[in-house]
Amino acid sequence: MEKSKQDIIIWWTRIVRNIILTICVPISIFYGATLYTKHISILDAHIELLKETQYDKALSLLKAQKELYQREKKELNDRIAFLESSGNNKEEINKLRRQLDKEKIHQELRDEQNKMLKFNKKELKEYMDREFDDFKLKSWDDL
Fold it and tell me: What integer pLDDT is reported at residue 137 of this predicted model?
């Protein structure tokens, strides 16, 4: 039984296809699973970094607000002292004192927020963990 040239080509094509399916597909799946696991670990690390930087941003913002308040307080006190020494503008002095009192109240509120953040650092981290828990990704083995 003579095989034609076309039959031989078809036979070799089927063998090559079967070899590719048998060897290459499992290798591709394994390689994809490895990349997926690495990607998951990178995303988890990125989420942890975001949690830490958000907390640090809140503290640095409160610190900057306090420094700004102290500068404004000093400027207002200097201006009040200057106006009092000149003896004029009692209305302007009262206006500046009201502004100083208002700023003092705002600063006390910011100080309370700062204390709460420092005191509740553990609770804040737990809250962030709960909020980001939906984004916790599982590895390939957990699926």
Answer: 45
